[in-house]
Amino acid sequence: MKRKSRGGQEGHGPSQRQLRAAEVVRHALVDIVQREELRDPELKGAYVTVGEVRASPDLKHMTVFVSSLGPGDPQRIANGLTRIAPFLRGRLARNIALKFTPELHFQPDISFDEARHIDELLASAEVARDLKHDEEEGER
What we know:
The chain has about 140 residues and is an alpha+beta fold. It folds into two domains: about 15-110, K homology (KH) domain (GMP Synthetase, Chain A, domain 3), CATH 3.30.300.20; about 110-140. Helices cover about 50% and strands about 15% of the residues. The chain has helices spanning about 15-35, 75-85, 85-95, 110-120, 125-140; strands at about 45-55, 60-70, 105-110. Helix 1 packs across helix 3 (about 85-95). The longest helix has 20 residues, at about 15-35. The protein is flat and about 60 Å long. It starts with 15 loop residues before the first helix and ends with a helix.
């Protein structure tokens, strides 16, 4: 028999507990990446940005979305951080007060690229023409 979640809201996004824990981990990771010398060749000279952290329901796994400030491939950054994940997890254990130190899974953060692409589409001549056409019909 399937158990209902509290409030009967099954599958409606992360809980407050997950959101709080993910934000604590995000802030701690930002501090660690900023202060520590990361000895992976993919990360040499890279400015890493932690955009978002998503926690599993049991808080034992967290997906960290990373990108680079300036030039740099987000996939290379994610690969480099994956290689040093045990080191980061050890540092994280010292900086957070959770029952378990989560396993870290790094993914490239492409949300900025998607937003830029949408802005480019909205600025295109075809969309401007359609918007102008819609405004003219609305005035009639």
